[in-house]
C-alpha cells in the first residue's frame, strides 16, 4: 500500500498512479472502492449510477470527485472502469460502454459471480475483450448504498481476479496492483473454480440465512421465536439483512454451482435428521467435533491473515552466552514425522487410540485437518495428546472439497498413499511453496500403486487421484529420501498381498516399530523388507523424542563443563545409536539403554561433560549419519585434534549445503575447517564467538547454538524465526536446564 503513498499536494490525474477511475454503480462496494482510492490519493474518481441521489451523496461525502455518464466523453478517457452494479445489470452496462471503450482502459467488475459476467461480456462483445479482467473482493457487509462506503473494507481481505486465456497480462498485473494498493491480498483464479468455491463459502450461507429467517417468521410461534432468539440466531442470520436484489441476481447467475453445493448440503442435513431421530449421539458428536475443529482452524488461518502483521522472518536472532551448564531431567518433544504417521495410522485402524507426546505443530495440524475432512473424529485432549476414533483402512469418506496440504511436506508424503488407497476420487492441493513443486518420487510411487493421476502440471500439486484396483507391488528404495521411505511403507498397507521393499534400511526404524504397534506385520530378509497389513488395530502410543533434539541436547551437555543431563523418552534406532556410539568413541560420557525386543534402544540416556577428541568418518558412515552432520561438525570443532569426514560430496545437496554453512561458521569463529575433494577436515579448538547466520534453517540454528555455547565470547545467530516456531519447546526446555541464551528482535 505504501508503494503509492503520496504527498499532501494533489497531483494532476496523469500523475496519479491509477489515473482516472470510473465506478459504475456507486453503492456500498463501488463506494468503498472509490473512497479507498481517493483517500490514498491514488486516482481521480468518477461515478455513474442509475440513482442520481447516490451520485450527489458520493460527491458531498467525498467518496468521488465527479459524477459522470456512460457517454463517449467520459468512457473514452478513463484509465480504469469498475462495474459495481448487481451482477444481472452488468450486461446492459457493458452494452452501453462498448462503443467508446478504449483498448488501453482496464475494464473490471466486483460482482459476486464470475461465469455470468464473462458470459455477459462475450454476448455483448462477441468474445471476451482482452482488457476486461473480472474481479471479486471477498469483503462486504449486509448493508448497501453509498452511505455504507468504508475505505478500509478491503484491507487484509482477499480479492480474487479471474483472468481468461486472452486477458492482457499487463492489465491483469495492473488489476492486482490496484487491489493491493487498497490493502487487499490478491489471488488469480479460474472462473469456474471461483463460482464453485463461492457457491459453498458465500452463496449457500446467504441462502440458508434467508430461508431460515423466512421459515421461522412464517411459523405459528414466530412472535416468541424472535422474542427469545439468542445470540446464535443473531450471528447465524446477520446476512439475511443483505440486499435482496443483489442476492436474487447471484442465485440466478450462479445456478449450477449453487445447486450442486445445496444438494450436497441437503444430504448432510438429512443424515443429521436421521441421527437425531435414531438418537445416534456418536454421529452427532463426530459431525460437531469435526466442524468445531474445522472452524477453529479456519479462524486461526483467517486471524493470521487479517490481524497478524506480516512476519519479518529474518529479524529474530538468538544470542548464546558462554559458561552455561546443563543439569536436570527432561522428556523431549515427540518426533514430528512419527506424529504424522501415528495419527494417520490411528485414523486407519479400527477402534480408539490414545496418542501422547504428539508434536502438534502446524504441519501435524494439517494432517489432522485432512483426516477430519474425511470423517475421522480426532479429539484434542491436551497440548500434546489426542484421542483418535479410527475408521478402518479404507474407511475414510470422500471430502467435500479438495484436501489442502497447505505447506506441510510431511503431510504430503504420509497422506498421498493413504488417499490413493481409498475407494474414492480425491483432489489434493496446497499453498506455495508446496504447490507447483515437481515431486516425481512420490507420484511415481502412486503410479506403482496403480493410481491414475491428473495434473495441471506433471508431478506437481494440485492433483486429482482416481483409485484403480490395487496391485501387489514391489519397490526399490535405493537412494530414497526418509520422506519417500515413509510414503513407501504407507503405500504397502494398501497392497493386495504382501508388499516388498528392496534396498530398504537394514536396521529396524522407529517408524517400523510404530507401524507394528498398529498390527502391521514387517519381516526382513537379506534382500527385502516385506510388509503385510490387513485390518489395523487401535493402540495407545507415546511418541518417542525427535532424534535431532536428543542428539543436540546430548552434544550440548557433553560440551559444557559441569553438565549432567537425563533424557527420559528415547527410542533410538540404529542411526541415533551410531551417533551416540561415535560420541562415546570421542570420549563422551554417555550411558545408553539396552536394545529391546523390537530392536530399538528404548528408555533413558544419561550424559555428563567430557573432553572430546577428534574422529574420522568413512563415506558410508557419513551417509548413515547425514541428518546429524551439522552436530558432528560442531563436535569436531570442539574436539582435540583434526577430524576427517569423508563423502561430503556424496550427500544429497541439502545435507551438503548444511555442512558447507557450518564450515563457513567454524571459520568465522576461528576454528579451521575446509572441504577438499569431498573430505571435510576440522581442526578442533576453542571457538571465538561472533555473528552467524543460519539462513532460516532450524537444524543449522541448533548446531550454531552449540557452537556458541562454549566459545570465548557471545555468539549471535541471525534468522532464527523458524527455529523458534518449530522447536519452541526445545528452546524453552534448554533454557530451563541452564542454557544461557536470549531472543532479540
Ligand atoms: N454487498 C457485498 O457484501 C458484496 C457485494 N459484491 C458485489 O458488488 C456489487 C455491488 O453490490 P453492493 O455495493 O453491495 O450493492 P449496492 O446496492 O449497495 O450498490 C449497487 C448500486 O448499483 C446501482 N445500479 C444498479 N443497476 C444499475 C445500472 N443498470 N446502472 C447503473 N447503476 C446501477 C444501484 O443504484 C446501486 O447504487 C454486486 O455485484 C455484488 O454482487 C461483492 C462483494 C461483496
Ligand atoms: O457480509 C458478509 O459476511 C459477506 O459474506 C460479505 C460478502 C458478500 C458477497 C460477496 O460476494 C462477498 C462478501
TrEMBL record:
InterPro entries under this entry?
6-PGluconate_DH-like_C_sf, Enolpyruvate_Tfrase_dom, Enolpyruvate_Tfrase_sf, NAD(P)-bd_dom_sf, PDH_C, PDH_N, Preph/Arog_dehydrog, Prephen_DH
Instruction: State any single GO MF term.
Output: transferase activity, transferring alkyl or aryl (other than methyl) groups
User: What Gene Ontology terms for biological process does this UniProt record contain?
Assistant: tyrosine biosynthetic process
Q: Is Amino-acid biosynthesis one of the keywords?
A: yes
Pathway per the UniProt entry = Amino-acid biosynthesis; L-tyrosine biosynthesis; (4-hydroxyphenyl)pyruvate from prephenate (NAD(+) route): step 1/1
**What are the alphabetically sorted keywords of the record?**
Amino-acid biosynthesis, Aromatic amino acid biosynthesis, NAD, Oxidoreductase, Transferase, Tyrosine biosynthesis
Q: Name one Pfam family in it.
A: PDH_N
In short, the EC number is 1.3.1.12
* Residue ranges occupied by any Prephenate/arogenate dehydrogenase domain in the UniProt entry: 19-306
Q: Which reaction does it catalyse?
A: prephenate + NAD(+) = 3-(4-hydroxyphenyl)pyruvate + CO2 + NADH
At the top of the EC hierarchy, this enzyme's class is: oxidoreductase
**Entry similarity comment:** Belongs to the prephenate/arogenate dehydrogenase family.
Please state what the protein is called.
Answer: prephenate dehydrogenase
Lineage of origin: Bacteria, Pseudomonadati, Pseudomonadota, Gammaproteobacteria, Oceanospirillales
Amino acid at each position: 500500500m505504501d508503494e503509492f503513498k503520496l504527498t499532501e499536494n494533489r497531483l494532476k490525474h496523469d500523475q496519479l498512479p491509477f489515473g482516472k477511475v470510473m465506478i459504475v454503480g456507486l453503492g456500498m462496494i463501488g463506494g468503498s472502492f472509490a473512497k479507498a482510492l481517493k483517500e490514498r490519493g491514488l486516482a481521480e474518481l468518477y461515478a455513474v449510477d442509475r440513482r442520481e441521489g447516490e451520485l450527489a451523496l458520493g460527491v458531498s461525502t467525498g467518496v468521488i470527485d465527479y459524477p459522470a455518464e456512460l457517454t463517449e466523453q467520459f468512457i473514452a478517457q478513463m484509465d480504469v472502469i469498475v462495474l459495481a452494479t448487481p451482477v444481472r445489470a452488468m450486461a446492459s452496462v457493458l452494452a452501453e460502454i462498448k462503443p467508446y471503450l478504449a483498448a488501453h482502459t482496464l475494464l473490471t467488475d466486483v460482482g459476486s459471480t464470475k461465469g455470468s459476467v464473462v458470459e455477459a461480456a462475450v454476448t455483448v462483445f462477441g468474445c471476451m475483450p482482452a482488457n476486461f479482467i473480472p474481479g471479486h473482493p471477498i469483503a462486504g457487509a449486509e448493508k448497501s448504498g453509498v452511505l455504507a462506503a468504508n475505505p478500509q473494507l478491503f484491507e487484509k481481505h482477499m480479492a480474487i481476479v479471474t483472468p481468461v486465456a486472452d486477458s492482457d497480462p499487463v492489465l491483469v498485473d495492473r488489476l492486482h496492483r490496484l487491489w493491493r494498493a487498497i490493502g487487499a491480498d490478491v489471488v488469480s483464479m479460474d472462473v469456474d473454480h471461483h463460482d464453485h468455491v463461492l457457491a459453498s463459502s458465500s452463496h449457500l450461507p446467504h441462502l440458508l440465512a434467508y430461508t431460515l429467517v423466512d421459515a421461522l417468521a412464517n411459523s405459528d410461534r414466530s412472535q416468541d421465536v424472535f422474542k427469545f432468539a439468542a445470540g446464535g440466531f443473531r450471528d447465524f442470520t446477520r446476512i439475511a439483512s443483505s440486499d435482496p436484489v443483489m442476492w436474487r441476481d447471484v442465485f440466478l447467475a450462479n445456478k449450477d454451482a449453487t445447486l450442486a453445493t445445496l444438494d450436497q448440503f441437503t444430504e448432510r442435513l438429512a443424515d443429521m435428521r436421521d441421527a437425531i431421530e435414531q438418537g445416534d449421539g456418536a454421529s452427532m458428536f463426530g459431525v460437531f467435533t469435526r466442524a468445531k475443529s474445522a472452524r477453529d482452524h479456519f479462524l486461526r488461518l483467517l486471524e493470521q491473515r487479517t490481524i497478524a502483521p506480516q512476519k519479518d522472518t529474518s529479524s529474530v536472532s538468538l544470542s548464546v552466552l558462554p559458561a552455561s551448564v546443563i543439569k536436570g531431567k527432561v522428556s523431549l518433544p515427540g518426533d514430528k514425522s512419527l506424529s504424522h504417521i501415528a495419527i494417520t495410522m490411528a485414523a486407519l485402524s479400527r477402534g480408539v487410540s490414545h496418542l501422547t507426546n504428539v508434536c502438534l505443530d502446524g504441519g501435524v495440524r494439517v494432517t489432522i485437518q485432512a483426516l477430519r475432512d474425511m470423517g475421522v473424529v480426532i479429539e484434542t485432549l491436551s497440548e500434546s495428546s489426542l484421542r483418535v476414533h479410527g475408521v478402518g483402512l479404507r474407511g475414510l469418506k470422500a471430502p467435500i472439497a479438495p484436501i489442502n496440504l497447505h505447506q506441510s511436506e510431511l503431510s504430503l508424503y504420509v497422506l498421498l498413499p493413504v488417499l490413493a488407497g481409498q475407494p474414492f476420487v480425491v483432489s489434493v492441493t496446497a499453498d506455495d511453496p508446496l504447490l507447483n513443486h515437481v515431486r516425481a518420487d512420490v507420484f511415481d510411487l502412486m503410479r506403482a500403486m496403480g493410481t491414475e493421476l491428473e495434473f495441471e502440471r506433471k508431478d506437481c500439486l494440485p492433483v486429482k487421484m482416481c483409485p484403480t484396483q490395487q496391485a501387489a507391488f514391489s519397490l526399490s528404495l535405493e537412494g530414497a529420501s526418509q520422506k519417500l521411505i515413509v510414503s513407501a511403507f504407507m503405500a504397502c498397507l494398501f497392497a493386495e498381498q504382501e508388499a516388498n521393499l528392496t534396498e530398504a534400511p537394514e536396521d529396524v526404524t522407529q517408524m517400523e516399530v510404530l507401524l507394528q504397534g498398529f498390527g502391521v506385520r514387517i519381516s526382513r530378509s537379506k534382500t527385502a523388507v516385506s510388509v503385510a497389513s490387513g485390518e489395523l488395530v487401535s493402540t495407545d502410543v507415546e511418541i518417542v523424542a525427535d532424534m535431532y533434539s536428543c542428539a543436540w541436547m546430548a552434544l550440548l551437555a557433553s560440551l559444557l563443563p559441569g553438565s549432567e543431563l537425563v533424557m527420559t523418552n528415547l527410542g533410538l534406532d540404529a542411526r541415533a545409536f551410531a551417533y551416540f556410539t561415535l560420541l562415546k568413541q570421542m570420549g563422551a560420557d554417555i550411558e545408553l539403554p539396552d536394545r529391546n525386543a523390537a530392536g530399538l534402544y528404548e528408555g533413558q540416556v544419561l550424559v555428563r561433560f567430557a573432553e572430546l577428541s577428534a574422529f574420522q568418518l568413512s563415506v558410508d558412515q557419513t551417509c548413515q549419519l547425514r541428518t546429524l552432520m551439522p552436530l558432528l561438525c560442531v563436535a569436531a570443532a570442539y574436539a582435540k585434534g583434526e577430524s576427517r569426514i569423508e563423502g561430503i560430496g556424496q550427500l544429497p545437496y541439502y545435507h551438503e549445503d548444511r555442512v558447507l554453512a557450518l564450515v563457513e561458521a567454524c571459520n568465522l569463529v576461528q576454528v579451521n575447517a575446509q572441504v577438499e575433494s569431498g573430505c571435510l577436515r576440522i581442526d578442533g579448538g576453542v571457538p571465538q564467538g561472533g555473528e552467524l547466520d543460519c539462513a532460516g534453517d532450524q537444524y543449522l540454528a541448533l548446531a550454531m547454538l552449540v557452537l556458541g555455547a562454549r566459545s570465548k565470547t557471545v555468539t549471535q545467530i541471525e534468522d532464527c524465526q523458524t527455529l523458534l516456531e518449530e522447536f519452541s519447546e526445545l528452546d524453552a526446555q534448554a533454557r530451563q536446564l541452564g542454557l544461557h541464551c536470549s531472543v532479540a528482535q
